[in-house]
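Write out the bound-state structure for pyridoxal-5'-phosphate.
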Amino acid sequence: MSLRDLPSVDKLLGQAGDLVAAYGRPLTTQALREGLEAARARLLAEPGPAPASAALLAAAGAQLAALTAPTLRPVINATGVILHTNLGRAPLSRAALEAVTLAGQGYATLEYDLEKGERGSRATHAERLLIRLTGAEAALVVNNCASALLLILSALARGRGVLVSRGQLVEIGGGFRVPDVMRQSGAKLVEVGTTNRTHRRDFQEALDERVALILRAHHSNFKILGFTAEPELAELCALARPVVDDLGSGALLDTAAYGLAHEPMVQESVAAGAAVVAFSGDKLLGGPQAGLIVGRADLLARIKRHPLARAVRADKVTLAALAATLLHYLKDEAVREIPLWRMIAAAPDDLRRRAEGWRAALGAGTVLAGESTIGGGSLPGETLPTGLLALAGRAPNALAARLRALPQPIIARVGEGQVLLDPRTVAEAEEPALLAGLRAALGAG
Ligand SMILES: *Cc1c(COP(=O)(O)O)cnc(C)c1O
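---
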């Protein structure tokens, strides 16, 4: 009976020194035990010779390698979608990365006052910079813009009404819907106007003593065209309730300077009189995932006192990256230092030249005029002209799959029967890896 020929776990473990060194004894023991159980089940179902120890050890090694392989892997984004949500939105600047390393590898003055030698405030790091950059009285950093909105509504409107235009009852993506967040916060949604047209007087007429706030949610990811109307933010701010402006992207620089539509800027909302403005750290700001809240000092004080504020507060690593990112704006070097703005500002001629360089280095493909997009639910329909390296072939989807299967995966677009690669979202430092990967994938075709 070959079941008897199966080695014991202890015997295998004695021969598994390399695996134990690499993965630890408990995990290795578990993998060997599972391998033996599987072998036993196979032999019971179909009697035959037992597998050799070497085969059992090799199978355990493969299983352990698969189990412990990193799942959050760096990829080369050659799609030309700058804020690719599935690929992690904004890459961080060099200074932000250095700040993350310093804050993460040891202790830091997260809530410590060096002068007094006692407890300080985590608000000193990014919030004073946000105040200076936006002109707001006060600021708070939380986990992301979705939690910012939940916190604001919970703190300022629980059990009371919030006016929202029917044209702004939006789903942002990832299941984030304004009406759901409103319900979760305990605020009562009061819809005003119609899907395509809402006027100042619609808000005016809905104002009664039960209403705590007016919410404006930016149409980040869609456009309403045709017969439409929405009051200006300043008109809403002239009404007798605080206006909360959910900007989503919340740019600090003017996107119109780069041939894009003008994305609402945080400074503009503050200047127009919005009482509280919420925006993301990792959309057009180009920093880490975070939710940034700026606005009136009295309202921010109430928001900071709410118990949810503690539940959604930002950690030291986020605050370090965010402060470093905000400093780029303060020092007027954002377009040079923040990868997102460098990509937005890249000149089409330079991009075309880079695509030509790739074509020459590979001896394959053609260079086409194409378009990059912003992505991340920002500036829908807006594009930036670029040059694309197009690789034609009988099976573009198979080539795209081989590119994704590389040790450093390359994510490309497939369009018009070709694999399309956009230099706009590929850092120059990534080019050697990109070209090596393309050569390998083309050679294997
Ligand atoms: C993206 C977006 C959000 C959610 O922001 P996260 O930082 O991803 O949580 C909220 N509101 C609007 C208008 C958005 O565009």
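---
Residues 144-146, 172, 176, 217-218, 220, 246, 248, 280, 291, 377 surround pyridoxal-5'-phosphate (CB under 6 Å).
Residues 25-45 form the longest helix (21 residues).
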